[in-house]
């Protein structure tokens, strides 16, 4: 893309914005990219741009594998110590204050891990405790304030477990 086309695209994107607002936004993006460049040095493998927000913690980033355009917003925590690693697809956003924690940061059993598909996002204030392997597909948007604590099981297994629990409770009466 030529430089003129790029600037025309930027001008169109920020039409109606004041110069101060455009400057603030571009400065924020540049700082996200600089943090991402630093983290990228220690990541397992990544194919494209990595943007990291302020106050974000990424532990054991050598177990983090990402595609193109990963954004981890402000104050998120990603603990990547997992037996099957943390694998993130293309164009994925992890929201502010989201926590991904397959294992305790201070020792203990190592969790299995997580895979997030392409064009997916984890909303703000989510907690994903992936002690069992969690596979989030492509084009998935997880809203704010959700908690995943256990292994993902099939609907059939869930119904079976609920029926067994109900049978046990009824037999105790």
Task: Record the SSE blueprint.
Layout: H1 3-13, H2 19-40, E1 45-46, E2 50-52, E3 57-59, E4 64-66, E5 70-72, E6 77-79, E7 86-88, E8 92-94, E9 99-100, E10 114-116, E11 121-122, E12 127-128, E13 134-136, E14 141-142, E15 147-148, H3 155-172
Parallel strand pairs: 1-4, 2-5, 3-6, 4-7, 5-8, 6-9, 7-10, 8-11, 9-12, 10-13, 11-14, 12-15
Structure description:
By secondary structure, this protein is of the alpha/beta class. It has a single domain, classed as UDP N-Acetylglucosamine Acyltransferase, domain 1. The protein is built from three helices and 15 strands. It has helices at 3-13, 19-40, 155-172, and strands at 45-46, 50-52, 57-59, 64-66, 70-72, 77-79, 86-88, 92-94, 99-100, 114-116, 121-122, 127-128, 134-136, 141-142, 147-148. The strands form three sheets. The chain has a five-stranded parallel sheet with strand order 1-4-7-10-13, with no helix packed on it. Strands 2-5-8-11-14 form a five-stranded parallel sheet. The protein is elongated and about 65 Å long. The N and C termini lie far apart (72 Å). The relative contact order is 0.10.
